[in-house]
Amino acid sequence: MTDRYQTFTRTPLGRTLVKNLGLPDPAPLPRWTEGAAVIDGPVVFGAIGETDAGKAIQALLRDVGASFSTAAEGVASSELRPKALVFDATGASSTADLTSLQRFFSPVIRQLGTAGRVIVVGRTPELAASPEQQIAQRALEGFTRSLGKEVKRGATVNLVYVAPDAHDQLDSTLRFFLSPKSAYVSAQVVRIGTGPVVGNDPDGPLTGKVALVTGAARGIGEAIARTLARDGATVLGVDVPQNANDLRQVVKSIGGHELLLDVTAIDAPQRVAAAAEQLGGLDIVVHNAGITRDKRLANMRTDTWDAVLDVNLRAPERITAHLVESGALKDGGSVIGVSSIAGIAGNNGQTNYATSKAGVIGLVQALAPRLSDRQIRINAVAPGFIETEMTAKIPFTIREVGRRLNSLQQGGLPIDVAETIAWFADPASAGVTGNVVRVCGQSLLGA
């Protein structure tokens, strides 16, 4: 759906009113296109000391062909318009080291280019070598969340915590956050642990993989299916029989396979596993199917409550358990759940929906350590206001508030959710598990 207000702000009259009245000024967000570079402008790199993480970051910048300079080289020139600022804070061992954040960012933050990227890399606080280091590293979260609300013109800020000896796992995550693929992801905290180093083609990271996507017939599910197929995966799309025509069109266009199925059916886990086995087993499972049945709790019937929990939470729980136990999900695979910021912040009239989506986060947290012995990763995305047929039906005033109530001052697109899921699914993200990443432009709800 077209954001007419954003279009208006690009006109001469709109620019005048935005400037004089202090109205929201959402900048157009570039999305990734085939053949595009990971980062299309200069990068400024800074660090607290010389660390293994810092060396890995600089190696990645060289690998993607980025032109980068260091803070020590005097990059505060007024002519410089960096596309990204990357700071290695893993060397911070006490709060005294936090002054380095101000010294690095203050001279250059105003110069950050349109749709720029700010990435801070820290050491996982829970794995710190001392209480002093843990305090300093945890402080980075407040810094990045606040800076995300200060930067303008479509820029984003994210924090990546890396475990000791896991610097070799930074590649896929830094590529994602540097690139337009993360256009609507800001003020997020990602934790990276150790895992096998997987070398693959960044242009086809899912080649040879089989991916299950539920709710694949339209909207966000369709975008997920198309994006995973773009990255090389064979997609098994699942949707209810009522959406048969839409599902058939999607899977035909991407060379995938269809499975007409209500995920709440008693035999749904077994039918999914059987279909997966015909394709040689699953590497990726995306639980996207979801419904809403909004009512305030005082007016909600039990069947309305259960319908939402059955689709959004109980079905993913049952299907995942069976796929793991039966071996239909291969070792080294990836499970991705679709949660919501409603599951983090709550929402009026959505006690059932918010309960189900918070439960998806619980599923990730419960299973991440239990699946690690088979090197199966599990993560979740939590979308905010995404432009879909569903949000297009929201009353105008509420829809406009939803769009503007985030640091990027606009709604996201289904592709933003899909790109985040593709990053989770990438085998090179072997160290990324147990994470919940909001795709919400830093929504001010639950932020």
UniProtKB/TrEMBL annotation:
Lineage: superkingdom: Bacteria
Entry-linked Gene3D superfamilies: NAD(P)-binding Rossmann-like Domain
SMART domains: PKS_KR
PROSITE patterns named among the record's database cross-references: ADH_SHORT
Family: Belongs to the short-chain dehydrogenases/reductases (SDR) family.
InterPro entries: KR_dom, NAD(P)-bd_dom_sf, Sc_DH/Rdtase_CS, SDR_fam
NCBIfam families noted in UniProt: PRK08261.1 (NF006110)
Name this polypeptide is given: 3-oxoacyl-ACP reductase
PANTHER family, per database record: 3-OXOACYL-[ACYL-CARRIER-PROTEIN] REDUCTASE [NADH], SHORT-CHAIN DEHYDROGENASES/REDUCTASES FAMILY MEMBER
A Pfam match: adh_short_C2
Domain Ketoreductase: 209-389
Species: Kribbella alba
